[in-house]
Amino acid sequence: MIGSLADLARAAGTSVSTASRALSGHSSVNEQTRARIRSLADQHGFQPNQLARNLRLRRTHAIGLILPLGHETGQHLSDPFFLSLLGHLADGLTERGYDLLLSRIIPMTADWLDRLVDSGRTDGVILIGQSDQQETIERVAHRYAPLVVWGAGRPDQRQLTVGSDNMGGGSAAARHLIAIGRRRLLYLGNIAAPEFMQRYEGFRQAVAGAGRGVTGTALELHMTPDAAYSAITAYLDTHPAPDGIFAGSDVVAMSALRALTERGLTVPHDVAIVGYDDVSLAAHTIPGLTTIRQDLVAGAAALIDILFKRIAGETAASVMLKPELIVRGSTVA
């Protein structure tokens, strides 16, 4: 019975190191010997100890996928944007022979990211969002190369990021609302987190550039569906309804659609709505949701490409994706 690499080497009449190199396809072992050792292994159902091999190579063949929730502790992994990006990342990592180690982190101490990257459990880390943890991410990125972030890019930052042009997307949303005749605009979203701050800034600049007669205000809220719905409902109880809404995410836009409909306001006749992300559900709301699309297929591929370049010790650069306005029934009757 062959139950170890040593057993396989004895059966093949080779050294343990030769048997190991043969199984890994190393060119130092001739093809005839490699074929003989592989055939013996197949006949006896022998599988090399991948964990031991990884330890020798100092590789885990796992990538950490981390969702830090410093500002949105109620955020769930079931969020449709996160699930979509997770699916594309899982597919891409599997194609490279890597496993994915998923963690939802509520940062309680300043060293939360240090402990993750120093744990030895992964060969690299992908962060989904920066939350309010920019200082921590920048500090760790200074010393830990295989770290890449889905989030907002800035010229002066050390961390490598992949994300859409959030300011451009926010501006496109506001300009679309203005172009269809809306004058009392409202931004819905979290303004503290970098991505959403940039989306709001793009919205604000577009409103400021529209001239007299166009106003824009902001309702800062948590981005989970229930929290967003409650905040929008409370706002509508005490303020006149806007005639145009830009929501920082599709989830918030859908919460706004629900709150407006319950008050007898029609979309888009009374209030036009633009979301952000273009999650799969956005096309299936009633009416369909106009939104700013982020190309998550290209985004996931860029995250993986940058990460593996850094694992290999190569240089890499941040990537900014071009957002696209997708017009549906929530702004066009």
TrEMBL record:
Q: Which GO terms describe its molecular function?
A: DNA binding
Matching SUPFAM superfamilies: lambda repressor-like DNA-binding domains (SSF47413), Periplasmic binding protein-like I (SSF53822)
Stored CDD domains: HTH_LacI
Please give the superkingdom of this protein's source.
Bacteria
Domain spans labelled HTH lacI-type: 4-57
Alphabetically list the UniProt keywords. Answer: DNA-binding, Transcription, Transcription regulation
For this protein, the record's PANTHER family field holds: ALANINE RACEMASE, LACI-RELATED TRANSCRIPTIONAL REPRESSOR
Protein's name in the database: DNA-binding LacI/PurR family transcriptional regulator
Q: Which organism is it from?
A: Sphingomonas vulcanisoli
